[in-house]
Amino acid sequence: MADYDLAIIGGGLNGVSIARDAAGRGLRVILLEQGDLGAGASQASPRLIHGDLADLERRHFLRVRRALAERDVWLRIAPHLVRPMRFAIPAHSDERTSLHLRSWLLLYDRLAARNGLPASATVDVTHHPVGNALKRPFGTAFEYSDCVVDDSRLVVLTAVDAAARGAEIRTGARCTRAERGREWRLVTIDRGFRRIVTARAVANATGAWTSSVAETVLRVPPPKLAAVQMDQIVVRRLFDSDNVYVFQNGDGRLIFASPYQRDFTLIGNASRAFKGDPAIVTMAAGDVAYLCDAANRYFRERIEPVDVVRTLSGANMAMKPAGAPSPRDGGLTLDHGRGRAPLITVIGGDVTTSRLRAERAVSKLTPFYPMSARWTARAPLPGGDFAWDRFVNEVDAARDRWRFLGEEQARRLVAAYGTNVKAILGDAREPGDLGPAFGPELTGAEVRYLMEKEWARFPDDILWRRTKLGLTMAQADRDALTAFMAKGASAVRSGAC
Ligand SMILES: Cc1cc2nc3c(=O)[nH]c(=O)nc-3n(C[C@H](O)[C@H](O)[C@H](O)COP(=O)(O)OP(=O)(O)OC[C@H]3O[C@@H](n4cnc5c(N)ncnc54)[C@H](O)[C@@H]3O)c2cc1C
User: Fold this and answer.
1) Start and end residues for every CATH 3.30.9.10 domain found in the chain
2) Which of 15, 114, 165, 463 is deepest in the core (most CB within 10 A)?
3) Distance 49 CA to ligand 1 centre (A)
């Protein structure tokens, strides 16, 4: 008998979502990720959980409605990771007319369920906080509700839930070769050791690597795909209000500028065709300038490429245009036959519809195994067992229990771990109870938790994915963190992850 019912190659959002869904339906699952969870395109998404105004403009009404329904699901199952925000589009006489924008947004409200998020509204920016950061000529803006998500933590917490339901999650495990018969035999290099894994079915969820893994590892005809690169920039905070700004760019694209980690602003996206090694995706100088120019059309405070403190780039696959579905839905294929064990290939797609995509992927295996019904829309992710409009109450409750926590620190911890923050802070009565401090925010207790429960192995896994504290941490603290993790690694190797 095969070791597993399903082996998933790739630990991005698509891979972990399939692992969670399948493990919860009773399948024996292993996920193989060559590096860290979410270290590919999934850490460089635009972080939006939305119906997508661009899709609305293309008159894809059913798709918008479906994505808005998914937005409600995310608010229900991940209230710590998903934040409702007011999005503001300043009206611009050179672009879409005010009438056009207003009618879009009324339709957007109609397509969404009544879930407690405020409806769209017209605001006079000369007398509204939204206007403070904008250049003078803007008189009107339109506000509407959508959400932003911590994309990297979404990946990790989905994997944590998959593991809690029995999936084996292997990071640092690269699949190098596969033989296909009535079952799959996969050769992996797992943290330096050769390991053979057998499985009744395989899912190729390797993002930008999909074609090369199909061709060289699985040795099946590669799907017809185009590689696309997506880029965003991070600059110091450009505005105080808690809005996401949506700018209409001269080329018809929508550019988003959102609050990022308290002191920064994230501006995106630029995108282009991608060629090269998906492990090394770098942003072109022209694209940095493009996003700076787009922001400078609207914000009072000018930014230049030299002000960019970090770029976020990722590559993924989109179906080639002829007959392809929308890139946001991604693609899904099932290949099987006599003596050929099933192979699912999942391609790209956006964050908002990732849960649904995984549900469909796993459902494709129902002819092959008995499995229980769909379930992921109802079960909260770890730490997400509270209502989304109680987030502030959770922060207050944390500050009541751990009185040494500052407002911002409590907010960061609850946003990252939800009710599981107690697993990190335990009975601590003062900061010293949490072990060494790496800067003002990160403690030994949190690092230990991330190594034991969330597969963090290297400083970057913590600084850029489990948290974003790499944006502000001083070099001396990084060095101390590196030494602390090196010491802790041998203890953790025999532990939970
Ligand atoms: C151009 C572009 C536009 C996008 N637009 C949007 C958008 O508008 N809205 C939105 O919400 N999202 C958007 N996204 C989506 C989002 O960033 C990701 O595509 C999504 O998170 C799904 O990623 P994934 O799991 O397919 O790929 P990835 O996150 O890249 O994961 C693939 C993983 O497979 C691993 N892997 C590869 N080969 C092997 C192997 N041999 N063995 C083991 N592991 C392997 C890699 O290390 C990697 O971690 C966009 C992405 C791109 C690139």
Assistant:
1) 45-149+226-317
2) 15
3) 16
**With a threshold of 0.70, does the pTM exceed it?**
yes
Tell me if the domain spanning 4-42+153-224+323-363 has CATH number 3.40.640.10.
no
Domain with CATH 1.10.8.870 in the chain: 388-493
Pocket test for ligand 1, best of 42, 43, 176, 266 (most atoms within 8 A of CB): 42
Where does 388-493 sit in CATH, by number?
Answer: 1.10.8.870
Cβ of residue 11 lying under 6 Å from some atom of ligand 1: yes
Measured from the CA of 188, which atom of ligand 1 is nearest?
42
Alpha helices in 60-186 (DSSP H): 61-77, 98-111, 151-164
Give residue 204's pLDDT band: very low, low, confident or very high (50, 70, 90).
Answer: very high
Per-residue pLDDT, averaged over 354-363, amounts to 97
* CA 443 to ligand 1 centroid distance, Å: 30
The third-level CATH classification (topology) of the domain covering 45-149+226-317 is D-Amino Acid Oxidase; Chain A, domain 2 (3.30.9)
> Which mutation among 209, 258, 281 tests ligand 1's pocket best, with the greatest number of atoms within 8 A of CB?
209
